[in-house]
Design brief:
Length: about 400
C-alpha cells in the first residue's frame, strides 16, 4: 500500500509539471503590438543621399520579436544595409536614394505574443542639385541695443535640392541670430552673422553687424498741438551713456490717416505731410483703405456716395469697399455703382433693395415712363421703376407689345 501511495504521488507531480509546461508564453509577461507609425524628418530624398527612418511602436513596452523592412522598388530606394529587405529587432533603419521616382517603405513589427502591426509611407527620390554659393542681404548693418532685424539668405543655383541654411553668430555677447535669420542686438561691438548651407558646409555668406550704444527704449506715435496747429509726431525715449532723454519729431513724410485726440475729441484724422487737415471733407486714403472725412475726421457713420479727385464713390461705414454694385442714394440723386464707383456711363435697368430702376448715365430717371432693357429682357418702366404689376398690351413709340408681370413677352 505504501508503495502504491508513492507511485500515485509521483504521477501527480509529473502531471502538475506537465501542466506548467503547457502554459502559453504570452502568460509569462509578453506584451502585444497594437499599432506602428513610420517617422522621418524629410519630404524627399536626393539620389545618393542616405537618411535614418524610425518606427514608433504602440504600446511602448511591447516585447518585439522581429521587425521587417521592405521597399516597393529597390531600383529607386534601398536600405543602406540589407538591400531591398531587412529583418531584425531594430526600430530604426537607413535608406538610400538610388534613382528618381516614388517608392513605398513598409515596416511590419511582430510581438513575442504573435501579434503584428504594419505601416507604409511614400517617399520621393529626386535628382540632387548641389549649392554652389550662398549670399546674405544686407552684407553690413548697424543696430541699436535691443533692436531686432531680419536678414535674408539665398543660394545658387535657385533650383538647388536643399536651399536651407543654418544661421550663427561669431559673438553672441554682441548679437544673436535665430533659425529664421532674425538678429537681435545685445551689447555695443561688432560681430559676424553667417548663413551656412546645409547642403555644403563649405558654402557660406556673412553680414557684419555693428551694435551702437544708443538705445531707443520706447517709441510711439500720436497727434500733438503746436503753434495753433495739430501734427502727427513720433515720441521717443532715447538712452545714451546711461542718460535718458525724450524727443518728438513731426512725421513730415507721412500722408494718410492716424488716430489721436484733437481738441479733446478722439478719432482718425486726415494727415498731410505730418499736419492734421481739419477742413478735409472728401475721400482720402491711408494704408488701411479709402475713407470719408468730415471736418478732418473719418466719418464711420457715413453710408452714401461722396466725391474725391478720382470720382464719386459709395462708402459703407465711412469706407470705400470697392465691392458695391447696386443703386445707392446721395443728396444729388440715386446712382448706379460698379465696384463702388459711379461711372456716369451706365444706361439700362439695374436693381437695389427697393426694386429695379431705369438709369441714364448711371443716374435713376424718376421721370421716365416707357420701355427699357437689361440682360434679362425688356421692361415696362413707370416713374423710373420697373412696374411688375403691368399685364396686357403696352403701346410705345408707335408699336404694341404684349407684357406679362412687367416684362415684354
Amino acid at each position: 500500500m505504501k508503495n502504491l501511495k508513492k507511485v500515485l504521488c509521483s504521477v501527480l507531480a509529473l502531471v502538475m509539471m506537465a501542466s506548467l509546461c503547457l502554459i502559453p508564453a504570452s502568460a509569462a509577461g509578453d506584451v502585444g503590438v497594437t499599432s506602428v507609425d513610420l517617422n522621418y524628418d524629410i519630404q524627399w530624398l536626393a539620389v545618393g543621399q542616405s537618411e535614418d527612418i524610425y518606427v514608433t511602436v504602440t504600446p511602448s513596452d511591447c516585447t518585439i520579436k522581429g521587425v521587417s523592412w521592405t521597399t516597393s522598388d529597390p531600383s529607386i530606394l534601398t536600405f543602406a544595409k540589407g538591400g531591398a529587405t531587412m529583418t531584425s529587432k531594430s526600430t530604426t533603419c537607413t535608406v538610400k536614394g538610388v534613382s528618381e521616382g516614388f517608392c513605398y517603405i513598409t515596416v511590419i513589427v511582430e510581438s513575442t505574443d504573435g501579434s503584428k502591426a504594419s505601416d507604409r509611407e511614400l517617399l520621393h527620390v529626386t535628382k540632387r542639385t548641389a549649392v554652389s554659393s550662398v549670399s546674405v542681404s544686407p552684407s553690413n548693418m548697424t543696430m541699436k541695443q535691443g533692436e531686432s532685424r531680419t536678414l535674408t539668405s539665398s543660394v545658387s543655383p535657385s533650383d538647388a535640392t536643399d536651399p536651407s541654411v543654418t544661421w550663427s553668430s561669431s559673438n553672441s555677447a554682441v548679437a544673436v541670430v535665430d533659425e529664421n535669420g532674425q538678429v537681435t542686438a545685445i551689447a555695443p561691438g561688432s560681430c559676424n552673422i553667417t548663413a551656412t548651407s546645409n547642403d555644403d558646409k563649405t558654402k557660406s555668406a556673412t553680414c557684419v553687424v555693428t551694435v551702437s550704444a544708443d538705445q531707443t527704449q520706447d517709441t510711439y506715435y500720436f497727434v500733438k498741438k503746436s503753434d495753433g496747429n495739430w501734427y502727427y509726431v513720433k515720441g521717443s525715449y532715447v538712452t545714451k551713456n546711461g542718460s535718458t532723454t525724450y524727443q518728438t519729431t513731426v512725421m513730415e513724410n507721412y500722408t494718410g490717416a492716424r488716430p489721436g485726440y484733437v481738441n479733446g475729441e478722439y478719432g482718425w484724422w486726415r494727415i498731410d505731410g505730418g499736419k492734421v487737415i481739419l477742413n478735409c471733407n472728401t475721400i482720402e486714403q491711408n494704408e488701411h483703405g479709402w475713407w470719408k472725412f468730415k471736418n478732418g475726421k473719418v466719418d464711420f457713420s457715413y453710408n452714401s456716395i461722396a466725391q474725391n479727385r478720382y470720382g464719386w464713390w459709395k462708402c459703407t461705414n465711412g469706407k470705400v469697399t470697392f465691392k458695391e454694385n447696386e443703386i445707392y442714394q446721395n443728396e444729388h440723386g440715386w446712382w448706379k455703382c460698379t465696384n463702388s464707383k459711379v461711372t456716369f456711363q451706365e444706361t439700362g435697368v439695374y436693381h437695389n433693395k427697393h426694386g429695379w430702376w431705369y438709369c441714364e448715365n448711371s443716374k435713376v430717371q424718376f421721370d421716365y415712363n416707357g420701355l427699357a432693357s437689361n440682360q434679362f429682357g425688356t421692361w415696362v418702366i413707370k416713374n423710373g421703376k420697373v412696374n411688375f404689376d403691368y399685364n396686357g398690351k403696352y403701346y410705345w413709340n408707335g408699336n404694341t407689345y404684349n407684357v406679362k408681370n412687367g416684362k415684354v413677352v
